[in-house]
Design goal:
There is one protein chain. The protein is α/β, with parallel strands linked by helices and 393 residues long. It has 13 helices and 14 strands. Strands 10-9-11-1-12-13-2-14 form an eight-stranded mixed β-sheet, sandwiched between helices. Strands 3, 4, 5, 6, 7 and 8 form a six-stranded mixed β-sheet that branches. Helix 7 links the parallel strand 5 and strand 6. It starts with 5 loop residues before the first strand and ends in a 15-residue tail after the last helix. The model has no long low-confidence stretch (mean pLDDT 95).
């Protein structure tokens, strides 16, 4: 019998469950990622329904709930207390840090001072410099990039500085080097006012229509304070990061990092970690919901991906030991049914399952940080240094 305490925290990247009261500030009124995905015939998630996904506040009308199974997990609706709707701030809050001020965004593109310094430091000229869809930008600027050698620099509604380059013209190692230069520049210059949440390498390949490759790499800004991961590591426990978690936290508080190319590999790696005897947390991000389906307004793909996760989850739950705890949540929304291809300001789901967990409605929580407090509480650690209130008891 495993004597260690193992906690599995899985982020279904972008699975929002309905607009927050302040969604209008982001022009996200009406966004509801889960509702949009549930409407598609490809959605078939009996395991998530059995845990209690549809019982979460605001997800299902009472008449429909009467036909659903009694939940086997504790469940709740998470409110983002931070001023944002992006991956970085969402994960920081899940890990105990509330960020009142949003990270900088650039709806009109980056100012000349930023691009001039970027060119001076890297030697590359710049194309685009506008908010853009990642697939559209290589369609519209890919040929010019190949003919001029200039890099495609673009942003979105999120706090990101994205650099796209064809792998045959700019090797991935060179693109990564350029992104590292951009990360340092944006963080250290101009008193930090251009310190975006992430610099993202976006390599692509082929001939028109070009295709993005799986060698994307994120260069995040360091968290402004220690997170639950730092506390876990400092206590001598294991902090295993699966997927882009290590990139989001810049390796801070991580004892083992396992990068993955997508959902399928992320789920497979999580299964492999569960076969090990460890003491601490396995923190997994499944990015395809957001990157491949949400941002591309692919409702069918999103629904199918959730169905695949549900099948995996049905096999994963029986492998959990008596002292294991599973928490499933999200970091923001990305409604594939709205005209926007950007993230949406939404509540997120929380499902907590374990042999010792009493199934119950935990209501609408005030902050994602309640998850961090719960994680540390479960691992027998103090939580005063971080935001949030444990719902373990």
């Amino acid at each position: 019998m495993n004597q260690n305490k193992r906690l599995f925290l899985i982020v279904l990247d972008s699975l929002g469950i309905g607009e927050m009261p302040d969604a209008y500030k982001w022009k996200d009124e009406g966004s509801n990622t889960l509702r949009s995905v549930r409407s598609h015939p490809a959605f078939d998630c009996p395991t998530l329904e059995r845990l209690g996904l549809l019982h979460i506040d605001g997800v299902t009308n009472p008449a429909e709930l009467a036909t659903k199974p009694t939940p086997s997990a504790a469940y709740g609706r998470m409110t983002e207390a931070s001023g944002g709707k992006d991956t970085t701030i969402g994960h920081w809050e899940i890990s105990g840090i509330i960020s009142p001020n949003p990270l900088p965004t650039y709806p009109d593109g980056f100012p000349p001072e930023v691009l001039e310094e970027f060119t001076r430091r890297t030697g590359y000229g710049v194309l685009c410099n506008r908010p853009y869809s990642g697939t559209d930008v290589i369609r519209d600027y890919g040929e010019e990039h190949l003919s001029t050698g200039k890099l495609i620099v673009y942003t979105s509604a999120d706090s990101v500085f994205q650099i796209a380059a064809h792998e045959d013209l700019v090797p991935v190692s060179e693109l990564y080097r350029v992104c590292e230069i951009a990360r340092e520049m944006l963080t250290s210059c101009w008193d930090g006012r251009h310190a975006v949440g992430r610099v993202i390498a976006r390599p692509f390949e082929g001939v028109s229509p070009f295709k993005r490759t799986s060698r994307r790499h994120d260069y995040s800004i360091l968290p402004p304070a220690p997170t639950m991961l730092d506390a876990i590591k400092q206590a001598g426990l294991e902090s295993i990061a699966v997927g882009k978690i290590t990139d989001i936290f810049v390796g801070q508080g991580i004892t083992e990092a396992i990068r993955t190319a997508g959902n399928a590999e992320g789920m497979a790696v999580t299964t492999m970690v569960a076969e090990r005897d460890f003491n601490g947390i396995c923190f997994t991000n499944l990015v395809d919901f957001d990157m491949v389906y949400g941002h591309r307004n692919d409702i069918a793909g999103y629904a199918s991906a959730l169905t695949e996760f549900d099948k995996w989850l049905g096999n994963f739950l029986p492998t959990l030991g008596e002292d294991d705890l599973l928490i499933i949540t999200a970091d923001h929304g990305c409604d594939p049914a709205t005209p926007s291809t950007d993230h949406s300001r939404e509540y997120t789901p929380m499902l907590m399952y374990g042999h010792a967990v009493t199934p119950r409605n935990l209501g609408t929580r005030k902050t994602f940080a309640d998850i961090a407090a719960t994680v540390l509480d479960y691992l027998g650690m103090k939580t005063e240094a971080l935001a949030g209130e444990s719902f373990l008891g």
